[in-house]
Amino acid sequence: xxxxxxxxxxxxxxxxNMDSLLLGVIILSIFILIVFISVNVKLSKVSKKYxxxxxxxxxxxxxxxxxxxxxxxxxxxxxxxxxxxRIIEFEQKSRLVISKVYSxxxxxxxxxxSDLSFSxxxxxxxxxxxxxxxxxxxxxxxxxxxxxxxxxxxxPYSPEEREIVFKAFQSNF
Length: 173
Hints:
Blueprint: H1 3-16, H2 18-53, H3 62-94, E1 100-106, E2 117-123, E3 129-136, E4 141-148, H4 159-170
Antiparallel strand pairs: 1-2, 2-3, 3-4
């Protein structure tokens, strides 16, 4: 058989099965069209997500955008570490600041009419600070200052002073 015989045989086969072949081509074309539409829909979704991701980056590509974001995150981490260090410093300094303040007004002399005498204690977290006491009398007024260092005072306390110092020592500010 030569090549002419094959052509004639193929031509006869196509002519006799033309309906079936056209139906097969139409079904194949419809299937390819459905696949094409599906791929386009997925591509459209990916394209939309990409546009949302890169919106407002002024022409940067995704790699540049990610590198920029990584740099921003590293900068933020550095700032957070710096803030943590400053917080530690502030906490250490705040222990020295007066945080416990208690006072009491009282009548130092029963024959006097009102509570014009007072005692006030001002302490930090380490119970270091001062005690100020003012004793009011008819003819005079006296003011005393007592240093308190880590809960110890070398001067004796009056009952009123002892009361407010005890309250200050018991507080946990």
